[in-house]
Each structure stands twice: as C-alpha cells, then as structure tokens.
Design a protein that fits this description.
The protein has helices at 12-26, 37-47, 62-71, 81-86, 107-114, 118-124, 141-152, 171-181, 197-207; strands at 56-58, 76-78, 98-99, 134-137, 160-163, 187-190. It is of the alpha/beta class and 212 residues long. The chain has a 6-stranded mixed β-sheet with strand order 1-6-5-4-2-3, sandwiched between helices. It starts with 11 loop residues before the first helix and ends in a 5-residue tail after the last helix.
Length: 212
C-alpha cells in the first residue's frame, strides 16, 4: 500500500517563524499599550484567534510589574499542571520556581472543609508563597475567586495576577471581579468565557522574554 503524502510545512523553525509572521500581520494591536504587545501576540498564537485581543483587559504597568518580578526571581504560582507544563523554563530569567499545589495531598480534605473545589483549596496553600509572586490562573474560576477573597482578607499581594480561567460557569464573572477588585495588585485578564491553560502559560512566556 502506498502511503499518502500531504503537502505541508514540516520544519519546526519555519512553522514557528511563519506562525508569528501571520499573527503580527493579522492582529490589530492599535488599542493595546506597546509593553503588552508581546503578551497579546502570544495569546493570539496560543488561541488561534486574532480577535481575542479585543477582550484583553489590564491594569496600568502590569507587564512591567510582571517582567520586573520575574527578573528578580519571583515564583510562578500555577493553578494547574497544564499551565506549569506550558511555561518554557529555559526562557525564565532567573530559573524561577514553578509551583502548583493542586496535587498536594492536603487538597481533597481542605476542599471538603472549605466547601469548595480542589482548585480553590489549592490556592489556600499559596499563602506563604504569594508575596511578590506571579500568579497564572488558566483553568478554574473558583481559583481566581478564592484568590480575590484571600486578598480581601489580608493575604500578601502578588506582583501580578494573570487571570485566564475558562468556561461557561463563573469564568466571565471571576475576571470581572478581578478587574473590579484587584486594588493595587497588577493584573492582565481576558473578558468573557475564553481563556485556558495555554493562554495563561503564553502570557508568562511573553513576560519572560519570549514574544515570538
């Protein structure tokens, strides 16, 4: 039997280069500050959607705060292993620590005691690591809500919150809560239901210096 052959680009460097050429060519960045352009381009690349940047929301100086924190060695707190896995370690400026508490053996009991999801319970375990950290949430709205509740109760403030939970229940609402209630904590988020671990990881990668 003859194997079918398709005509497609196979060289990984060429694929990467042409992907970002298309992203730059097709994405309207006119309403986004220059310092956020690498992050916006990374999010477009991760989502495959050039229109997604219309829903990007941020606080003033958020990108600069994230870059400075990473350069100073800040830890990166991830809500899922998928976010952690998507971060390109070799681009981290100070071999920054990556932490995801979701598989901590204390989480199931803690979730039961708190009457919440495991994702939210895992955030409870961030308290000792939170000050000055970069937070990357790419899955659970309950994780972002729980973080905001903790901050309102006096938890240490992170250097930056990258809030990209995804879904049909609570995702849009959790991101609106971040925009409304982050206070002095810098943030970048995406209004609406869209988000995901790939987008959260892409945002970290952009701040670490990989803009594509």
């Amino acid at each position: 039997m003859t194997r079918r052959r398709y005509d497609y680009l196979r060289d990984p460097e060429a694929i990467y280069r042409e992907s970002f050429e298309a992203v730059r060519r097709e994405t309207d960045l006119s309403g986004i500050p220059d310092e956020l352009h690498p992050l916006a381009l990374r999010i477009v690349h991760a989502s495959g959607d050039t229109d997604i940047v219309a829903n990007l929301a941020w606080s003033d100086g958020a990108a600069a705060a994230g870059r400075a924190a990473l350069a100073a060695g800040a830890s990166i707190l991830c809500d899922t292993r998928m976010v952690e896995t998507g971060i390109i370690h070799v681009h981290l400026p100070e071999s920054n620590r990556l932490a995801c508490a979701l598989t901590d053996p204390r989480v199931p009991d803690l979730a039961r005691d708190l009457g919440t999801t495991r994702s939210a319970a895992a955030v409870e375990l961030w308290q000792d690591m939170l000050e000055g950290a970069v937070v990357a949430i790419g899955n659970a709205p309950t994780a972002l809500f729980h973080l905001l509740e903790g901050l309102s109760a006096g938890w240490p403030g992170p250097a930056l919150i990258l809030g990209f939970p995804v879904g049909f229940v609570g995702a849009a609402e959790s991101k609106e809560a971040l925009i409304a209630d982050a206070g002095d904590v810098p943030y970048v988020t995406l209004r609406g239901r869209a988000g995901g671990s790939a987008i959260a990881a892409a945002a970290v990668n952009a701040l670490a210096g990989d803009g594509g």
